[in-house]
Design brief:
Helix content is 66%, strand content 9%. The protein contains 3 helices and 2 strands; from the N terminus they run H-H-H-E-E. Strands 1-2 form a two-stranded antiparallel sheet.
């Protein structure tokens, strides 16, 4: 093998190594990006689960006429305060029929969903 062929072969090997190293760095960067995204989505999921928990408790408390429990939750939790914008009457006798009936909710997709209580 001539000197020129050896030099060409060595240059080709170096270029191949550089390509592999660049690919490794790109894969590492992508993996880090995906890990960060996963962490962000986990945090968002936890926030949504907390909101769902509060809404569920609010609905249960409304069905049972426990306005004071909702008010107490609002005082303790900023999230509950953001989700609960209802004035609760004091010294009112609760009538369970106030929350029964038919409720239609229009979703963001334009679909109507009807709930019966």
């Amino acid at each position: 093998m001539s000197q020129n062929e050896k030099i060409i072969k060595q240059i080709n090997e170096e270029l191949e190594n550089q390509k592999l190293e660049k690919l490794k760095q790109e894969v590492k960067a992508y993996k880090l990006e995906q890990l960060n995204l996963q962490e962000k989505l986990k945090e968002e999921k936890e926030k949504i689960e907390e909101k769902l928990r509060i809404v569920k408790l609010n609905l249960e408390n409304l069905d049972n006429g426990k306005f004071d429990a909702i008010e107490e939750r609002i005082k303790k939790s900023e999230t509950a305060k953001q989700l609960s914008n209802f004035f609760f009457p004091t010294n009112t006798i609760w009538n369970p029929s106030w929350t029964t009936g038919t409720y239609t909710i229009r979703t963001s997709g334009g679909i109507n969903k009807t709930f019966y209580f």
